[in-house]
Specification:
By secondary structure, this protein is an alpha+beta fold. Helices cover 40% and strands 21% of the residues. The strands form four sheets. A seven-stranded antiparallel sheet has the order 3-2-1-7-6-5-4. Strands 9-8-12-11-10 form a five-stranded antiparallel sheet.
Length: 560
């Protein structure tokens, strides 16, 4: 750049400056831009050395580019100066507009701070405006918005040294450096923005690639999962509607994917399991229930739900995992059946019989004429005259009275008590009859024909007893040749008629291995009522059976 004493600036110098400005805007990267800034100072502004100190996110400044001296460049490039030291420098010396000039007479105090710097040798100046080797000239670079006196973001600082004409910059040189620093700040800001955008694009591309990979992994895991998978809508009018199913679920239910999209799981669940499905939480819910197949049958499944989002704050869907547990359920039912049923006849065993009987009884004994429950006694408010009892018209007094009676009625106030006929005559009371059956002549069949024949007799007797009772009645085998029938809602005469019918069924000939055998049966009728235990009820019926057995001549105790 020509000296300011000349009345004009050569056209070649302006062209150099213009070219440098163009180079700033065409640099490919932030690093290229910074190096172009440093080299432009040397090429177009007439300085021998230039350094770009770039502000880091933590506020300190790092030497990011250097031009004019390779030895000095190797010495300080990459070194960091603290923000405090830089603020101190920018507040000292003479301010030439936005430029800061610190003459050698003041700069000695900065020799020990942590700002990276180089040292040049040369003779002491002979003239007032001659450049001293220890003079320092800085051009702060701010964001464009900070121009006009406002304090903006400090992008960096240009450090320049050793003007080629050996003199301090005049008005033209100062203006050119200040203008250049302003344009350099714009170029660096743009380069940073491009770099950030490029990093963001790379990061976005990586995230999209990862998302595509994740979606593909999910698709393959969903489609080829060995157990059933489904995606359903969550919320809105179509909540629960199935949107997508995999092949495993379609095979399990025998329904094509196109047909599955017409249903929700509430449409497919067994009517008895709808409550289980509704109680299952949408988020992380789990349930075991039955789903309907296309052929009308049902299959036991373990259903597990989880919520997935399509995007941040986007639609939410229900991902349902359906596992076939039909075989496990079948084994569980078999084990439960074996634990509660006789292995030979398939009838409920002694433990199951006692459980069913005990479930009907409570510890509180009932008395003739006593209501079966508190509701039966006091449920009808109209049976009371509120005025005659001093109750308020709104019956609050009656309600208080009834509540007191409820509390005094003990823990069984809502239990429907089991009652029994009184006396030997049929008084019209319907109760829970317990028929204790013991086979007559069974031991002789075991002795003559063996245990296999005896087992066949027991199986046939069990079948005849089961066919001779009503739906809802219980036929159980206590063990050996003893059977028990629980028949609810019978009067005394009804129970006796049932015992006769069952005995007549049992005494019919039983064919075993081509021969006909017969057994007889003795029945004892007991009655269950609250206040008794299950064992007491069975003992009562057993005693009546022995009374009935001993009352008949021995030769008539079996049919033949």
């Amino acid at each position: 750049m020509e000296t300011e004493s000349e009345p004009y600036v050569r056209l070649s110098s302006l062209r150099q400056l213009h070219q440098v400005m163009a180079d700033l805007n065409t640099a490919r990267s932030l690093a290229d831009t910074l190096q172009t800034v440093a080299e432009g100072v040397v090429q177009a502004l007439g300085f021998e050395l230039a350094c770009v100190n770039l502000a880091r996110p933590d506020g300190d400044l790092v030497v990011a580019a250097f031009a004019g001296n390779s030895a000095a460049e190797a010495l300080i490039t990459g070194r960091v100066g603290s923000r405090d030291s830089w603020d101190r420098r920018l507040s000292m010396g003479e301010h030439w507009g936005d430029l800061v000039f610190i003459p050698h007479t003041e700069g000695w105090v900065l020799d020990d701070d942590d700002v990276p710097q180089w040292y040049t040798d040369g003779p002491a100046p002979r003239f007032e405006d001659e450049w001293h080797p220890s003079d320092r000239l800085f051009a702060p670079m701010y964001t464009p918005a900070s121009r006009g006196g406002s304090c903006g973001e400090l992008i960096g600082v240009l450090s320049v040294d050793r003007p080629r004409n050996g003199r301090r910059p005049g008005a033209w040189g100062r203006e050119a450096l200040q203008m250049y620093a302003f344009q350099a700040a714009i170029a660096i800001s743009n380069a940073r923005l491009r770099a950030n955008m490029q990093r963001a694009l790379v990061r976005l591309e990586r995230e999209q690639q990862a998302l595509r990979s994740s979606e593909e992994s999910f698709r393959q895991a969903f489609e080829y999962a060995p157990s059933g998978m489904a995606i359903a809508e969550m919320g809105g009018d179509q909540h629960g509607r199935i949107l997508r199913t995999n092949d495993a679920l379609c095979r399990l239910l025998g329904r094509p994917a196109s047909a599955m999209r017409r249903y929700s799981f509430s449409d497919l669940v067994h009517p008895e399991d709808i409550g289980t499905l509704l109680r299952t939480s949408a988020e992380g819910g789990r349930a075991e229930l039955r789903l309907g197949r296309r052929d009308g049958t049902y299959v036991w499944v373990s259903l597990r739900n989880s919520v997935v989002a399509d995007a941040a704050d986007g639609p939410r869907f229900l991902l349902t995992h359906v596992e076939d547990i039909e075989e496990r359920k079948r084994r569980e039912l078999q084990l439960a059946h074996r634990a509660s049923h006789d292995s030979l006849t398939g009838l409920p065993n002694s433990a199951e019989l006692r459980s069913r009987l005990a479930s009907r009884l409570c510890r509180r004994a009932t008395h003739p004429g006593e209501p079966a429950s508190i509701d039966a006694a006091y449920g009808d408010h109209s049976a009371f005259d509120a005025d005659s009892h001093g109750f308020d018209a709104d019956r609050h007094g009656f309600d208080d009275f009834r509540q007191g009676v409820v509390q005094a009625f003990d823990a069984y106030d809502h239990h429907v008590h089991t009652v029994a006929p009184q006396g030997e005559l049929d008084d019209g009371t319907k109760g829970l009859a317990v028929l204790f059956c013991d086979l007559d002549g069974f031991k002789s069949i075991n002795d003559r024909f063996g245990h296999n024949a005896g087992d066949a007799v027991l199986i046939e007797v069990a079948g005849r007893l089961s066919r001779g009772v009503r739906d809802g009645d219980t036929v159980a085998r206590l063990g050996g040749d003893e059977f028990v029938v629980l028949a609810d809602g019978l009067g005394r005469a009804d129970a006796q008629d049932l015992a006769v019918r069952l005995r007549n069924e049992i005494i019919q000939p039983i064919r075993i291995d081509g021969r006909a055998v017969r057994v007889g049966a003795s029945f004892g009728i007991g009655w269950a009522h609250c206040g008794m235990t299950a064992d007491e009820v069975l003992k009562s019926a057993d005693e009546r059976m022995y009374i009935e057995k001993r009352s008949r001549p021995k030769q008539h105790r079996r049919a033949g």
